[in-house]
Amino acid sequence: MLLAIDCGNTNTVFSIFDGESFIATWRTSTEWQRTADQYYVWLRTLMSLNKIDVAIDEVIVSSTVPRVVFNLRVLCNRYFDCRPYVVGKPDCLLPVDVRVDSGTQVGPDRLVNTVGGFDLHGPDLIVVDFGTATTFDVVGRDGAYVGGVISPGVNLSLQALHDAAAALPLVDVTKPAQVVGKNTVDCMQSGIFWGYVGLINGVVERIKDERARPMKVIGTGGLAPLFQQGDALFDVFEDNLTMHGLVVIHRHNKEMGN
């Protein structure tokens, strides 16, 4: 039984994979101070509440927060009696090449999305992920990660507006009824929503022009369905792309005898 852990800057997702499908998925806030014991009590409580009685014996981790990895390793060693695969570490093999400048460290979440996207949809992809940052990852003809774009995330931009301008409140991210707002909240919501629609369309078109070939656009992340309402931004939305990528990477390592 495989436990896949995706640790982002804001949230951490735990999913249990039985070899065919995910039987449970839970989300918690990312806190580097959380101990292995706390993770285990939290996870076991949720498993018990959902009447899931399985023995976890394999774990794979993707973490954009390096300080979290140590306690996740302890969790695996102490409670699951296994050594986890950690994406981005030398002992975790990838089924695709990474073609970036020498010395560049690519975020593990971006590598996992590349693997998941290629496995589901083949080559020549642009994966747009709405997280703490909004990222665009380019998958080449042979499935290799060949680079991308990083821009500020939606909620990060809203927080920055609120922090820098005392008169601007924190607002929810939603599609406004019209572009031109009649009050401060409507104006901010319009700026964020249509501003990001324009950002996504613009960056995607420039990537396609630069690559000079047809490319499929994959949307993922919590806010992707919302922004799909604004325009035909994505060819397909994949809610479980990162978790699928983790399963593919785990399977690749087992097949390679790693």
From TrEMBL:
It catalyses: (R)-pantothenate + ATP = (R)-4'-phosphopantothenate + ADP + H(+). The active site is at residue 109. Its cofactor is NH4(+); K(+). SUPFAM superfamilies: Actin-like ATPase domain (SSF53067). One of its GO terms (molecular function) is ATP binding. GO terms for biological process: coenzyme A biosynthetic process. It is found in: Cytoplasm. K(+) binds at residue 129. It is an enzyme of class 2 (transferase). Transmembrane segments: none annotated. PANTHER family: TYPE III PANTOTHENATE KINASE. Homodimer. This is Type III pantothenate kinase. It comes from Palleronia pelagia.
